[in-house]
# Entry
Amino acid sequence: MTRSGTRGRRGRAALVTGALTAMLAAGTYALPGTAEDAAAEAADAYTKAVTVAAETGHAQTEQVALAAAKRTGKSVEVTGLRQERRDVFANPKGTFTAQEYTQPVRTLKPGGWAPVDDTLVKRADGRLSPKAATVGLEFSGGGAGPFATMSRAGREYSLTWPGGKLPAPKVEGNTARYEEVLPGVDLAVRAEIEGFGHYFIVKNAEAAANPELTRIELGLSAKGLKIEKDPGGGMRAVDAAVGGTVFEAAKAVMWDSAPSPSAKTTQPAKGAARSAGSGTRATGSTAGPAAGPAAGPAAGPVAPKAAL
# Structure
């Protein structure tokens, strides 16, 4: 009996020892890394990030960009601070430089930042849009409905030709031209990075004599906006809920694109464009922040743009 009991106790001891050994062995693989290991990994990742930034000239964070700039002796862009009109660079001496642009140089798309591009492309629904603009912009592909719609932050502004359906436009670069909306008169709509321009091209004296040109009232519709006139004769589209200008346009102007030894003059439009002789005359609206006729024959000024 005694011998049997002794064997039993030894057996239990052996079982306990085996269990502890198994647990210790398993613990060798299951225990998390030490704080020193984590710090070493972080330092290694940081070093690699600085090396990449030094090679490429840009980094996501200020800290990495500054370290790369000090290493190379050259400025390194902080991509995490990019904006439509601004770049920020870390300098070798430990300072930062912000470079501002008067016009947007990039726009944020679903895949990230992209260079601005006002070239019109046809969409799946038949309408036209610029490749990369800072506002939502759509032009008619022909037919009924608005010929131009601009949107931003859920607010929308549209213009419609009062004469009914439009012909399919001729597209060149950033401009869609709807021919013969009236006899001898074309409607042109030009995409821009921050908005669009629209103007009428009166192609001859006979077209200019058309009484329908005395007054053309475009259809205007707005979503989430209140349209107001400004003291200068233009208009602004104000956020209907919280106030603040979302879009703005200056007073329409008229000019003659016929070649002339003197400088081309631009004057406010009175009803419609008038032509006394040969050449082409155009009329359209002008908007800010940047406004004024573009160079070239029958070039129109800028129309509603997003306000800054």
In short: Residues 118 and 192 are 6 Å apart (CA to CA). The chain has four helices and 22 strands.
